[in-house]
UniProtKB/TrEMBL annotation:
Protein name: UDP-N-acetylmuramate--L-alanyl-gamma-D-glutamyl-meso-2,6-diaminoheptandioate ligase
Gene Ontology molecular function terms on file: ATP binding; UDP-N-acetylmuramate-L-alanyl-gamma-D-glutamyl-meso-2,6-diaminoheptanedioate ligase activity
Catalytic reaction list: UDP-N-acetyl-alpha-D-muramate + L-alanyl-gamma-D-glutamyl-meso-2,6-diaminopimelate + ATP = UDP-N-acetyl-alpha-D-muramoyl-L-alanyl-gamma-D-glutamyl-meso-2,6-diaminopimelate + ADP + phosphate + H(+)
Keywords on record: ATP-binding, Cell cycle, Cell division, Cell shape, Cell wall biogenesis/degradation, Ligase, Magnesium, Nucleotide-binding, Peptidoglycan synthesis
Amino acid sequence: MRIHILGICGTFMGGLALLARELGIEVEGSDAQVYPPMSTQLQAAGITLKEGYEPAHLQPAPDLVVVGNALSRGNPAVEYILDQGLPYVSGPQWLAQTLLHERHVLAVSGTHGKTTTTSMLAWILESAGLAPGFLIGGVAQDFGISARAGGGRYFVIEADEYDSAFFDKRSKFIHYCPDTLVINNIEFDHADIFRDLEDIRRQFNHLIRIVPGRGQILARAGDAEIDAVLERGCWTPLARFGVEQGDWQARLLSADGSAFAVSRAGEVQADVCWSLLGSHNVENGLAAIAAAAHVGVEPAAACEALSRFQGVRRRLEQYACIRDITLYDDFAHHPTAIRATLGALRRRVGAARVIAILEPRSNTMKLGVHKDELAASLADADAILIYQPSGLDWDLSAVTTALADRCQILTDTESLIDAAAELAGPGDHVVIMSNGGFEGLHGRLASRLQLEMEND
């Protein structure tokens, strides 16, 4: 069988490509933009990538076209599929029908923390010898890949609330029919898909309705939106997790979140000492421990596995240190995630200077939905550089006004690199935050700093 995946370089669709290849299916795909880390994963797996959405890429006709949710009517490839009557399916539906229907599915949902928690959970099950399959919206350092079919009974999946395809506006996670469900948090996001928070609540309510009575729902304690959804009905055993609240509790042993103790129903289980930062990651870890316990992994074993957990690429990932300037790559693109990332780093580095470089790239950010929260989310940075792309629908000047002389707005990445190189000095920590490739800014800034060091 030969399939063609449209939007193959997205983290989800790229993961599907890896799974299909592992199952012995011939795979190729197209995308408008090709950039690491997904492009390098796919190329390493021998999967052919085609730039753009030309109808010619679908000739000769594949047996099936798997359509990513970034594509819509008017796209040349979509129109060709419909005109030619080619068989097509959404990514989530293909995954459910091909792989998930015969597995115990552990799904991690929520506005924030899905990728990290999914990676932690997969690593815990791997360490326990359960050989799980997984599909993660990023590259877990411990695995070096974002997806695999696995050889055991269990499949761990990042359960995204984003829509499935142009012809299926249900959230992706509806297709997964999880047996174990984690709900990390619920906030408004994906403003290009959802009109308001009520739209998102409705999708989570639909998800809760399909978790079987023999399953388990794990919800973060103290989240008013999760509580509001659960009040609409819950037919599955429920446990809550949180820092010093809930059935599963974490007690910080270090203010920066690098060590914490885990208890269950008031009984201390074990400690975790790891390289990650922030109370948000402590909650992510606690969720993963609780979910693993549902499939029989002892909490002490899970804590030991997390103490060896290496993290996820692009989640406050230190990728270079040049002239004693530490550079980080971070995926944060929502004010809550930005605040958590910078706050965690601040608690780790103390009084050292933190420079934040932000690309407001997500559809929600481009629409200006969170513009009133953005300045406050950057409060822990000493200096802020914000890229203003041409497609931004709102004026960033309000952010600069709130942050005064700490903030600069730049309209091209070359100027951004110039400003960052001029600002950064020994001992500084520079965090680049974007959910895209950012025109290769990460590597370009590192090269610039390296060149300046060599020329000193």
